[in-house]
Structures
1.
Amino acid sequence: MTTFSYKATDASGRILRGTLDAVDEREVVARLQGMNCIPIRIEASQGELGKFSLGGSFRIPDLFQRVSQRDVLFFTQDLHALLEAGLAMDKALSILINVAENDKFKEVVAGILKSIEGGNSLSEALANYPKVFSTLYINMTRAGEAGGVLPGVLERLGVFLENAQDLRDYITSAMVYPLFLVFVGGVSIIIMLTFVIPKFSVIFADMGQAMPLSTKMLLGLSNGLRAYWWLIAGFIIGAVFLIRRYIQTPAGRLKADHLKLKTPVVGKLVKSVEVARFSRTLGTLIKSGVPILMALQLVMEIVANKIIAGSLKIVYDRVKEGDSLSSPLTQEGIFPPLAVQMISVGEETGKLDQMLLRVAENYEKVVRAMIKRFVNLLEPAMILAMGLLVGFIVISMLMAVFSMNDIAF
């Protein structure tokens, strides 16, 4: 038996929260429906599955009260559950306003409800909040409304957003420990250079003894850091600012993206991430009834790397002229041969959406495996680098201390 936490609504629209012990989610749904309740969200309690739950109560973005992708994910999943249960759109949105934990997002949902009550469709209401709902999200919703399959489209959108969120969470959690090592190691070295070593420099100066070269270098670095820390900090901040400003320009963005693709390890990782994003987005759009040309246009907007986006523009033009999707992908060389072959099979069998989603699943696994290997190599490399730096400082000090034995009394 597993403990599940649930959020549901009764016939009066009152929000109910609690936990139930059950074999699986279907049993929880059946029991809630037996209680005349409509399930909104059901999640296994943390620790039961040994898995990070998307329903955690503590979230960094909530500290700043901004709308996060996680808020949009929960909104999509909850709206699908309520519409699938037969509730009208305005009733479902009214419930979601009460469910929303983020006050800013609660205002967004209230604005969407007001727009719908004014006679607009859901996609038109979502379009009023372009910073919250992407063009992809709005167009998929519009396609679902046109085809009369909005609940199904919302379900696929929920799966799409959840997979994207899982990948982001995995990358973020994988980089937490390396970044922590850099921070702690950097702070430790700065403290040693600015507070510990100057104590020894006074002793060495009073002794009047010639010091080893490594000790002189270390003391010079310490004195320079203490005397010109403001200049060093200003230089670093200025350099970061100028580089970021340059990268924000079209030419700078192209050069940065080109450099990413040419970097040995990073380039392969970037390609794998973009392949997974392209395949899942295009597959989800096609499965939701969006025409392939419109779907390709939407995909080009969400591809982060401008070099790959430029290649996709050529692919779009070729498909617009009547060519298949796999042929220009092969010629552009932006997709691995296996992925292109799977897409070609999907075109031949009329199951392009299914094959694209399968390609996305494969390359999301590849991305996770690459990040895991990269982190496994990065952690000992960083520990070694920090150890060498600290070792150099300690040995330089010890050499100076041992040189005192040569002083003639």
Note: The two ends are 81 Å apart (CA to CA).
2.
Amino acid sequence: MNILGWVIASTIALLLAVPAAAQSTLETVKKRGQLICGVDGTLPGFSLFNAVKEWEGLDVDLCRAVAAAVLGDATKVKFVSVSASDRFDRLAAGDFDVLARNSTVTLQRSAGKKVRFAVVNYIDGQTFVVPKKLKIEQLANLSGSTVCLAKGTTHEFNLKAWFGARRLSITPISLDTAEAMYGAFYASRCAAVTADSTALAAAIVRSGRAAEYRMLPEVISKEPLGPYVRDGDSPWLDVVRWTHYAMLEAEDRGISAKNIDALKRELNDPILRVLLGVDPGNGKALGLSEEWIYNIIKQVGNYGDIYEKNVGQGSPLKFARGINALASKGGQMYALPLR
């Protein structure tokens, strides 16, 4: 082989030995034409495959909003039910594109891991439910008792920390799934059950036995919940993050599915021109259509819309906005600048 032939052969061999760059999640979703979203699937208000075999919930609507932003169609979503114990491993393994499973944001779930949280879309706190017949009024009265909880959550650490700091004894019973946890609680295998307050309330209401139980007043933790994506894919993280912020910004500016077409015609408002894609820039920055926010709001709604429908006054749960209200209305929800 002459020198030129050797150089060509060596170059080809080298190129074949170098793996092709991994396709970004954004490119994968666009090519597939469908978003795959990991959810709970059994939690009223957040993600539930309901009696008429339709998906509903706050997390479900977040996924639909991402699909609207990326694909222009909020219906192009496949939902995958995933347990608390393996949700992050399955996300890292590529089983779905985004995890929207009422997952608490913590340092150790992100730093040095294969996943990253994108944004906080709901703020909750850990509480306890007990049977009324036990006449337990305060959390400290549970000392010496057993408490049911789900594996793979932050709840066991919080439980042990709260009781340990007060030199009180407690015995946690960890179950593999939320269904097993509530089943054990209803069967009186434990004196209390613990989870995020909204999840507890939703599950107890759904059971049809709410009159038999009470939620204790103590909230023992901060539980900022939000979607997670795989580490090392910042363009996709940006898409998920700014989808949530777009819904918050729309609520704060009074933009809804009902008035968005009329507002889009008000071409004199420079902020609206940018938000609704009349003036380009935001879409290009994210690798999306300039109408990505328009598609989200027109097809899914703003944050207030999805909150009220799924967990607020338009739902059986009727949770007040509280800490999840807009910052302009006394809460802690606000969008970073969309410009």
Note: Confidence is low (pLDDT under 50) at residues 3-21.
